[in-house]
Specification:
The protein has 161 residues and is α+β, with helices and mostly antiparallel strands. It is built from four helices and seven strands. It starts with a helix and ends in a 7-residue tail after the last strand.
């Protein structure tokens, strides 16, 4: 019985993720310039990308989307993983990876498995710390997006950047 419940829960999450991906592709919020090049041309495109990537995870994950000067995707990486309600984030590692990839900009994102996307005080502090540190090496932090299965919070949209 328990195994059947876990399997149905997993299948429900997979169906939701698939539906979200289909919606993303249908609405075309990101412009595909070639098979390998994705441009984040709106906040909505970044939000939907982050939601599809980490919005349904059962533990906190911290995603960094590294971009070039034209906001073309270089690489999206889940850089840190934690527990159901916290994860440790190391700005030094974000900067190191951004420099390795020659990124000009980045979008930060993490999920709140609880479903409440309200940023904590720690979320706000780490965002400012990462932004200030990245400015020193000419990597612009465009947004920090908190996602949950059915909601999001964009620091940029809320003028918290």
């Amino acid at each position: 019985m328990n195994t059947q419940h876990n399997q149905s829960t997993w299948q429900e999450k997979l169906q939701k993720a698939t539906a979200l991906l289909e919606e993303i592709l249908r609405e075309n919020p990101v412009v595909y310039r070639s098979n390998k090049e994705i441009i984040f041309n709106t906040s909505d495109s970044a939000i939907k990308f982050c939601s599809a990537k980490i919005g349904f995870s059962e533990r906190e994950e911290f995603l960094v989307i590294f971009l070039d000067n034209k906001h073309c995707l270089i690489k999206a990486e889940i850089m840190f993983q934690g527990s159901i309600n916290t994860t440790s984030v190391y700005p030094r590692e974000i900067i190191k990876r951004g420099l390795q990839l020659n990124a000009a900009a980045a979008i930060l994102s993490h999920n709140h498995p609880s479903g409440d996307v309200t940023p904590s005080q720690s979320d706000q502090l780490i965002t400012q710390k990462i932004k200030q540190a990245c400015e020193l090496v000419d990597i612009r932090i465009i947004d920090h997006i908190v996602v949950a299965p059915n909601d999001h919070y964009s620091f940029l949209e809320q003028s918290d950047m």
